[in-house]
Write a structure and sequence with these properties.
234 residues; globular; alpha/beta; 7-stranded mixed β-sheet; 7 strands
Length: 234
C-alpha cells in the first residue's frame, strides 16, 4: 500500500515502464521523474552542444548514484559517455537492464562501488549526483538539514565530486533551505534551479561552475509529460 502512490506515477518515472522496466522499493523512492532527468541531461549536454543540436554532446558524465538508471539513461541519450555508479549490485543490474530497454546501454559504463571511495580515481567533464536523502521520511522535516544527510554531509559529497570536475549538477530535496544551499560552495558560480512539473514542486538542482552559465536562471516550467518523451532523440 505504501508504494501505491509511486505505482500510480510509474509512467512519470519511466515512460516505457510497461515494456518491462525493473525497479525495487528503494528505486521507487529515489528515481528522478523522467522529464526532470531529460531536462537536466539536455542542459548538461550544452557544455559542448548548442540548443537544438542533434548530435550527442562530446562529454563524459559521472552519475554518482545511478540507482535503477533513470538519470543515466537520459544522459546517454544526450551525451557521448556515461559512468553509472551504484553500491547495490541488484539496482546496478536493474539500471543496465533498463538502459538496454531504452537502447543506450552501449554508451554507459556500469561500475559497482562506493562513489565516495571511487571519486579520486575518476575522470569526467561533469558529475551528477543525488546522494541518499534518507527515504521518503525526508519530507516530514520542515527543513532538510544538509549537514545531516546519511553517510556524509551535503558539502562532503560536493567536495568529493569536485575532485573529478568543478562542473557538478546536484539534485536535492525541495525542502532544503536556500541559504544553506548557497553556502555549500561560495567559491564557485552556482545556479539554483527549482524543478517543477506543472504546478508540482519536485526538487532542486544546483548547477556549478560552467553549468551555472548555461540556460537562464529565469523560471522555466517543465511542461512535458510522459507521452511527449516518446519522440525525443535516442
Amino acid at each position: 500500500m505504501k508504494l501505491k502512490k509511486y505505482w500510480n506515477r510509474r509512467h512519470d518515472f519511466f515512460w516505457r515502464f510497461d515494456e518491462g522496466i525493473q525497479i525495487d522499493e528503494v528505486g521507487w523512492y529515489s528515481v528522478t521523474p523522467e522529464v526532470i532527468a531529460h531536462d537536466t541531461a539536455e542542459r548538461i549536454a550544452q557544455l559542448y552542444n548548442k540548443p537544438g543540436d542533434k548530435q550527442y554532446g562530446r562529454i563524459c558524465v559521472v552519475d554518482a548514484f545511478c540507482g535503477v538508471g533513470g538519470n543515466a539513461i537520459k544522459f546517454a541519450e544526450w551525451c557521448e559517455h556515461v559512468v553509472a555508479i551504484d553500491i547495490d549490485p541488484v539496482r546496478l543490474s536493474m539500471a543496465k537492464y533498463n538502459a538496454e530497454l531504452y537502447g543506450v546501454a552501449d554508451r554507459i559504463e556500469f561500475i559497482l562501488g562506493d562513489f565516495y571511495q571511487l571519486a579520486p580515481s575518476l575522470v569526467a567533464d561533469v558529475v551528477y549526483m543525488s546522494p541518499p536523502w534518507g527515504g521518503p521520511e525526508y519530507l516530514e522535516a520542515e527543513i532538510f538539514e544538509l549537514d545531516k544527510m546519511p553517510f556524509h554531509s551535503a558539502k562532503e559529497w560536493l567536495d568529493r565530486a569536485r575532485m573529478i570536475s568543478p562542473n557538478v549538477a546536484y539534485f536535492l530535496p525541495r525542502n532544503c533551505d536556500v541559504k544553506q544551499l548557497a553556502d555549500l560552495c561560495p567559491e564557485l558560480s552556482c545556479d539554483i534551479e527549482m524543478n517543477f512539473i506543472g504546478q508540482y514542486f519536485k526538487g532542486i538542482t544546483m548547477y556549478y561552475n560552467d553549468l551555472a552559465d548555461i540556460c537562464s536562471s529565469e523560471a522555466r516550467v517543465i511542461e512535458l509529460d510522459s507521452s511527449d518523451l516518446a519522440g525525443l532523440p535516442k
